[in-house]
Amino acid sequence: MDIDQWLHALGLGQYAPAFAGNDIDLTMLEQLDDADLKELGVLSLGHRKRLLAAIADQRVAMGAAPPAVDAPASERRQVTILFADLCGFTALSQTLDPEELRELTGRYTALVDGIVLGYGGTIDKHIGDAVMAIFGAPRAHDTDPLRAARAALEIHEALNGLAEQVSLPLRAHVGIASGEVVAGPFERADAQDYTVLGESVNLAARLVAAAGPGETLLSDGAHRALGQCVISDAGGAMRFKGIDSPVHVWRLRCLAGETVTASRSVFVGRKAELEQFKGLARACLEQRAGHVVYVRGEAGIGKTRLVDEMRRFVETLGFAGHRGLVLDFGVGKGQDPIRAIVGSMVGLAPAAGVDERRAAAARVAASGAVGPEQLMFLHDILDLTQTGEGRTLYDAMDSAARARGKRTVAAAITEDVCRHGPTLIVVEDLHWADPQVLGYLAAFAAAIANGPGLLVMTSRVDGDPLDAAWRAGCRGTPFATIDLGPLRSEEALNLAGSFIDATGRVARACIERAGGNPLFLEQLLRNAEEGSEEAVPATIQSLVLARMDRLTTRDREALQAGAVIGQRFGLALLRRLIDTPDYVCHGLVRNALVLPEGEDFLFAHALIQESIYSTLLRARRRELHRLAADWFAATDPVLRAQHLDR
Fold it and tell me: What is the CATH number of the domain that holds 390?
């Protein structure tokens, strides 16, 4: 296999000319790092991650030892399972020579593996032509179901390209299921594998078998987790071998136009924050002077919902809106927030084709907003092929010069649209932004200074990337930070009333557990509607798992032991449970999972404690509760009894 074939097998054949033009062959792959890939023009973070993962696999295949990592302990986790299988594999095996079949299977599995790894999934195993992948273990993200759905759609698309290369009718069928599993190392006689066991694994395997060529079937749990992020068709109830009850199945069609959080609730509270924004927007319009508004808060606290209300308000004032979402994975194909915003400002729809993008670039050049010498940078932002002298000049530049040129063009276009009318730019989820995206945002902020422009951004508090240096780079554009806290009791009651009778016992219990977090409250109320009010919803568990997985092994063990003690725990007992006399909670506090409370520590939210507790295997729970009971034997008979009861 040469470098061209290798890239096409990963579904990244568009980069083959750049690799060839820079004399990169297979023997040089192991020398490439993230900066080199950017230099080669691989600007998509997801594509760079996919390439780096495939390069690591290449090193292992050539005999280099993979980096050593600590094997994670077994635990219960919410995951999404994806099975991808080639259609008609038996027929192919009858028509192809075994060597050809082996090569084809290798290219197919390499293609699927590359896509899965690029979206942050884990390859569990290959079974002939079938690939089993896990999203959510051993590392969780709060977008794991969406990652799996994106991977499925990209597998189908990439397989079309492979079919053209090998001149064979290749199609895949995919099954996706979400649910709780036991994840951890599984020992064999000769090795130890990390794998997952649970009903969702069996269900995903049944779904892939039932899916037609080019089709992805979703379990009902996966479909609920995806919410409004995808468009799918109801497939009715199906019966599968080994599963007692009929299973409601959905056929995945495509992603929704924008990644949104499923919400049917009314907008409640945030009156002071919204009034503050309205005042800034009116002043921006009257004084023709821009303003940056930065909305911060914990996951699920309502940042997106508030920004949506802000957008609705400024539209009544005549503002034109442009929105970009910073993804923590798999950008590219129009998902890059900067390309999305600049494209929107020059009048392009998200799915605009090459001809439309080229016509838009010509309109911008004709308007004088961008000079002729800057057109090459606009072409890059709009993902257009460089031609003529522009290509020669662009190829001769280093990545820093290209980045500066593109930021200048983005700023020039922003200034131009502000001159023609009031403009709103919304960029969400800055906690996942890389330095390159932050550089563009600084350019936007400076560009709106002297016109009716608003730059509204959101971020979680943990992971806030805007430091003093970034704010200084705004060049005098006023900057307002709005920090969101929990909903007040009466606001939570109003929110609950859009689901069920807010005066009922179930609603009051959900409000108390949610602690003023709107997302937590919505998910708890949905669970209550479905008759499972005691369990922590999978959405909340995934959010908490994603934070827990950032911890060191020792901090992770301490967090789980703390969850066994309760929402409040003392350091002395915690040290006893994890058998580490000198342990301190700095890592847990730094990640905003627990808060200092006098001499003790308190979980930042009751649902965080419940979610962490749910990850423990029952045997480990019993062991920790027994140790805690022994600790309280001489001092507190009630707590001893409670731990013995557990």
Answer: 3.40.50.300
Q: Are residues 95 and 55 in the same domain?
A: no
Query: Cβ–Cβ contacts within 10 Å for residue 193, how many?
Result: 12
DSSP assigned state of 236: E
* Tally of structural domains, the chain: 4
Q: Is residue 523 part of a domain?
A: no
The two three-digit tokens of residue 388, written as one number? 């003529």
Q: Which domain holds residue 609?
A: 551-645
Peptide bond into 138 cis (omega under 30): yes
The contacts of residue 390 (CB under 8 Å, 6+ apart) are 375, 376, 379
Tell me the whole-structure pTM to 2 decimals.
0.72
Q: Count of alpha carbons within 13 Å of 266, Cβ hemisphere only?
A: 12
Whether the CB-CB separation of 245 and 282 falls below 8 Å is answered with: no
Is residue 489 a part of any domain in this protein?
Answer: no
Q: Same structural domain for residues 238 and 122? A: yes
pLDDT band at 123 (very low <50, low <70, confident <90, very high): very high
Q: State how far the alpha carbon of 420 is from the alpha carbons of 150, 371, 416, 424, in Å.
A: 37, 18, 7, 13
Residues 121 and 24 in one domain: no
- What stretch of H or E contains 518? helix 518-529
Q: Report the CATH number at residue 145.
A: 3.30.70.1230
**Is 197 a member of any domain?**
yes
Beta bridge partners of 182: 76, 197
Find the helix packing angle between 606-614 and 505-514, rounded to 10°: 90
Does one domain contain both 231 and 281? no
Looking at the DSSP bridge assignments, the partners of residue 211 are none
Q: In the prediction, which pLDDT does 412 show?
A: 95
pLDDT at 104 over 90: no
- pLDDT tens-digit series, residues 143-181: 899 999 999 999 999 998 888 888 888 899 999 999 999
276 and 381 housed in the same domain: yes
Residues 279 and 219 in one domain: no
Q: Which residues, including other chains, have CB under 8 Å from residue 488's CB and lie 6 or more apart? A: 269, 516
Which tokens is 70 given? 């600590």
Q: What does the pLDDT look like over 299-339, one tens digit per residue?
A: 889 898 899 999 999 999 999 999 998 876 544 444 578 99
Q: Does pLDDT of 529 surpass 80?
A: no
CA-based R_g, the chain, Å: 26
The residues, any chain, with a CB within 8 Å of residue 419's CB and separated by 6 or more, are 451
Residue-wise pLDDT for 489-506, tens only, equals: 888 888 887 776 656 777
Both 111 and 208 in one domain: the answer is yes
Residue 497 within any structural domain of the chain: no
3-class DSSP state of 307 = helix
* Co-location of 112 and 237 in the same domain: yes
